[in-house]
Specification:
This protein is of the alpha/beta class. It is 29% helix and 32% strand.
Length: 315
Amino acid sequence: MPAGFRLSPRRVGLGLALEYDRILAVQTEISSKGVVVTGVDEQILVRGTLEGGRIVDPVAATEAFKEMKKRAKFSSKSASVNIPAHFFTIKSFDVPKGYFSNRDILQWEMGQNLVPDTAEYRFSSVDVSDGKGETSIAIASRADHVEERAGFVRNSGLEVNAVEPGILSIYNAMVLAYKDLPHRLLLVDVSAPYSYFALIEDGVFRPGGHVFTNQSIIVGENGIREFSKDIRRAFELVFEIDEIILNQKSVDMVFLAGRYADADHTEEFSKALRIPIFYKDIFGGSVLSSRVQSIEIPWHRIIKPLGLSLRTSRD
């Protein structure tokens, strides 16, 4: 399970992924019996609601969510929302557990390692693991970007649980749903205008970086091979110091998620990198189940809001 996540006390979680042209939502009920998906839906946004990841029409965004909430009968009083790939920076630290619980230390470390001017940024830290290994990561994002996403949740009549990088939400959902992940699994959040890649190594999250999502993917043309080249170049720059090359000898499998990670893209991406696709039934384990009879939205699109739904006010 994700580090720090507990099944009790009983609570309801709601995850909202504001994507390029829509809102994707997953509601879960969390209890000692496990995590049960109780609602899944999506709502297309009016053109121009989001631009470059910014919410330029907050009224349209709020009205779209309220329409979806009424239709899906979501009951949660609070929610967590994603923040786009180009609006955050993540760095892993080899420090003792709880080191960043002191906010002054966290701010000092971020000023030394990530951003020169800490006044305009929000910082957070989290221990990431699947219960076997663990590391601490710190996240930096401009305060106005965080507040914009939090404001969307509040304007929708909900309390804010978290504003979280989408790649971390995907990771949290993966380690919840799957007990045995490959030794090294490449995660790619294929979103717009930027995508983010990361590595899960022996259950531990290792941050990567973001790359521009070429327009051909967004408009439905076949640009995935060029995209795979961009991911390869960026990946090998990030992990060069560890001598990890993006091939099957170094990386066991790949998993694509996010708004534009459809089945055809995943297969083409896998072929281009010559790395097998990770695929297992998300409900095949003992912790995660669903009461939703028919889920028409592909799971690679809603695994992000699923992960966000795990972040509740009691965590």
